[in-house]
Amino acid sequence: MSMIHRRLKELREGNCLSQQYVAKMMDVAPSTYVRYEQGERKFSFQFAIEIAEFYGVSIDYIAGLTNNPKPRDEE
User: Fold this and answer.
1) pLDDT (0 to 100) of residue 74
2) CB atoms within 10 A of CB 25
3) Integer Cα distance of 39 and 41 in angstroms
4) Most buried residue, 12, 17, 25, 64, by CB count within 10 Å?
5) Cα–Cα dist 2/26, whole Å
């Protein structure tokens, strides 16, 4: 599992959310979201932006480029 997929799962679990709930909020099928988390399916850059906004973290954090989850404007 890549860092991106691991971070998706960590963010969801850290916020006590179900995969079904996040899938609904992101307007994707639950099976699609599960595959995103498991690394079985790639997602678009637009999805990365939306999920980062949903959790209030930076895309760099989701990608594993930083361990600081805060967006730059909040540093």
Assistant:
1) 58
2) 13
3) 6
4) 12
5) 21
Q: How many angstroms separate the CA atoms of 35 and 58, rounded?
A: 22
Greatest Cα-to-Cα distance within the chain, rounded to the nearest angstrom: 35
- Look over the chain and give the mean of its residue pLDDT values, rounded to a whole number: 92
The pLDDT of residue 10:
96
HEC secondary structure over the chain: CCHHHHHHHHHHHHCCCCHHHHHHHCCCCHHHHHHHHHCCCCCCHHHHHHHHHHHCCCHHHHHCCCCCCCCHHHC
Q: What is each CA distance from 52 to 3, 58, 61, in whole angstroms?
A: 14, 6, 9
Query: Which string of b and e fits 62-75 if b means at least 16 CB within 10 Å?
Result: beeeeeebeeeeee
Statement: residue 1 has pLDDT above 80? no
pLDDT at 53: 95
